Amino acid sequence: MKIKLTSVPVDDQARALDFYTRVLGFVKKTDLPAGEFRWLTVVSPETPDGVELLLEPSEKPETQAYKKFLVSLGIPFTAFATDNVQQEYERLRRLGVKFTMPPTPMGPTVIAVFDDTCGNLIQIYQG
Q1: For a FRET experiment, which of 24, 60, 80, 106 has its CA 20 to 30 Å from that of 7?
Q2: Taking a C-beta distance cutoff of 8 angstroms, is the pair 118, 10 a contact?
């Protein structure tokens, strides 16, 4: 068994696609109609056949409440690995990304947390 697809709930799929591709640097993999929404996935350009991230609509009140709860506690919804957190932090800040936690050493790694503009906190870590 292996992970092939995971998701992040987003308030607006178009805004999410722009942020996750233009700002974070992921690449659109799948974009298909799915009722009033889209089956919209992105992947890392480093592993285009790797794990897909579904930009899943979060219109249900329960999903909205869960996202707000996580944000209120400062808990990231998911995490992405990078070779250099400080470098990625500086690049993303230049692009206007708002961080809730700057690069911070945590044991053997360094983490930072930012707002994805779609209702989530996302962690990056040096892996």
Answers
A1: 106
A2: yes
